[in-house]
Amino acid sequence: MALALVGGPLGLHRFYLGRPQSGVWMILTLGGLGVWWLYDLVVLAAGEFRDGSGRRVEHWQIEDDAPASTSPRRVDELTAQVDRLERHVAELAERLDFAERLLTQQRERDRLPRG
Question: How far, in whole angstroms, is CA 42 from its chain's centroid?
């Protein structure tokens, strides 16, 4: 409501609530010359304004809409992915170390006088 009051003609509340297209239109029309802005204030005060996901702003409870990604199964999948990534990074570190040793040996050979 505070964003709608302060930045209403610029559609700041619409950008904040995930409705950027209508926010741009509000900027271009200065809140519909004030009419659209006043309409939004009334709808917000009534608790009927909806965000970009269709949730009412008055009862904006993220916990109810939490994705299933927090399930124990999903956590196990993510843990397995992190373990695989750690193994890949360790393997890459070993390869890099080996390549650096080869380059160092080659440089030392190039420095030795031929003879």
Answer: 31
Between 86 and 49, the more confident residue is 86
The domain segmentation of the chain, as residue ranges, is 2-60, 68-111
Answer whether residue 110 shows pLDDT above 70. Answer: yes
Q: 56 and 49 in contact (C-beta within 8 Å)?
A: yes
Average pLDDT over residues 26-41: 75
Whole-prediction pTM: 0.40
State how far the Cα of 79 lies from the Cα of 113, in Å rounded to an integer. Answer: 54
Q: Please give, one letter per residue, the 3-state secondary structure of 17-63.
A: CCCHHHHHHHHHHHHHHCHHHHHHHHHHHHCCCECCCCCECCCCCHH
Helix (DSSP H) and strand (DSSP E) numbers for the chain: 5, 0
For residue 46 the two structure tokens come to 């009534």
Bridge partners of residue 50, in order along the sequence: 56
Give the whole-angstrom CA distance, residue 100 versus residue 106.
10
